Amino acid sequence: MDENLPADENCGCPDGEGKLTLDGSVPVVQITNLQTKFGRTVVHQDLNLEIEQGEILSIVGGSGTGKTVLLRQMLGLERPSKGCVRIFGEDISEANAEHLQQLRNHWGMLFQQGALYSALTVFENIAQPMRELRVLPQDLIRDAVLLKMNMVDLGPEHANKMPSDLSGGMIKRVALARALVLEPKLLFLDEPTAGLDPDRSESFVKLIKSLHRELGLTVVMVTHDLDTLFALSTRIAVLAEKHVIAIAPTREVIKVDHPFIKEFFLGDRGKRALEALDESNEASKNKE
Length: 288
Ligand SMILES: Nc1ncnc2c1ncn2[C@@H]1O[C@H](COP(=O)(O)OP(=O)(O)O)[C@@H](O)[C@H]1O
Ligand SMILES: [Mg+2]
What we know:
Blueprint: E1 29-38, E2 41-51, E3 56-61, H1 67-74, E4 82-87, E5 90-91, H2 97-104, E6 107-110, H3 122-133, H4 138-151, H5 168-180, E7 186-190, H6 198-215, E8 218-222, H7 226-232, E9 235-240, E10 243-248, H8 250-253, H9 259-266, H10 268-287
Parallel strand pairs: 3-8, 3-9, 6-7, 7-8
Antiparallel strand pairs: 1-2, 1-4, 4-5, 9-10
Helix pairs in contact: 3-4, 3-5, 4-5, 6-7, 7-10
The structure holds adenosine-5'-diphosphate and magnesium ion.
Magnesium ion binds at residues 67-68.
């Protein structure tokens, strides 16, 4: 934030309950009139977004439109210059460092690059959020790590490998296991399938789908991969002109008359991905 700018009177959330609410009675994410500025550059202006419990909400937008910065706002890693970001009902820009740390235990984040510690084994990478809590006994940590490895289809034989020994797909799985190790209710994914080949990408999508179902997660994902987008999203939010210009299920969002939406969804790749979606919907209907 620019220290020289006068504090804005509209900054922050309106007074209200603002208590941690994990039962789904308030939106999991509630962003109101958000402005994000870096110096004089305005990245978000009057941005509104609500995400309900159990959704897989995907955020799309051109390169540099502020998707990653929006995730960072939800994680409390950036501060709004105006407006309000509430997660589980709490105003996270008001949370002090200690409280933010507690809040962080309720969500997991998969960064674009996987972001594993290169000097730590697979096991230690996944264990690290539990170790940071400093209160959990060793055997509980071991069981939790092995359980999460199993959940993401990584056998125990990989526990002592180093990140440099892993394929791109495995790095994503380790990072996902780490994001899940504290059993969060909310999972953030930034370009989860970027850099994976189509097969690995498809199996990662299946994995997210089954974890979403089994763990009752709310998922907030940034992706430009159309197959991932169509296969997973319950709704899609389109970021353009510094705010969310449309938010709706896939079928409705693609009908919105906006140049970015036309170019992104209705080009050749978009059409192919939509056909694939239709086919898989047909297939699952026939199975029922
Ligand atoms: N810490 C920062 N300081 C200054 N500008 C930043 C910072 N982080 C991001 N930006 C700018 O904000 C804009 C949005 O970035 P980003 O959210 O990373 O875009 P994307 O939609 O591609 O993820 C870009 O113009 C970027 O240069
Ligand atoms: Mg980005």
